[in-house]
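All the exercises in this workshop are built on plain-text protein records. A record pairs a protein's sequence with a compact description of its fold. The structure tokens are whole numbers drawn from a learned vocabulary of backbone shapes. Once this layout is familiar, the rest of the handout is easier to follow. An example says more than a description, so a record of this kind follows.
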Amino acid sequence: MSVVDTGSIDAIGLDKEAKRVFLTIIDPLAWDDENVHLFTLQEKINTYLHFVESGELYKAMPDCKGCDIAIELILKHMPSDEAISFFDSTMQILFDKGIVFVFGPNKDSGYVEQQS
């Protein structure tokens, strides 16, 4: 699964020691000028948010009750400036809902070069 499967959760992991559940989005897409990638990503994040807010997360993983929640975006391509702005807004919106938003890898450790 990946970001293009907007109606599904790509991966769930639980770090019991840190008491944090990770909902992971796998994003292999290159960034485009028409922002189709951003709209797809926004739809995927909304699916994840619904998964948490509806209680489906706790039905799927009862052990994660009481844990912090993080949505983790694993990118193949370095994000565009528009994507970074979107991530900043998303980070604040999710933080206000008690959800951490992280993305990576960092620019020095693993993005493929952006194709033109």
Notes: Residues 11-67+74-104 form one domain. The chain has one domain: 11-67+74-104. The first strand starts at residue 11 and ends at 15. The chain has three helices and four strands.
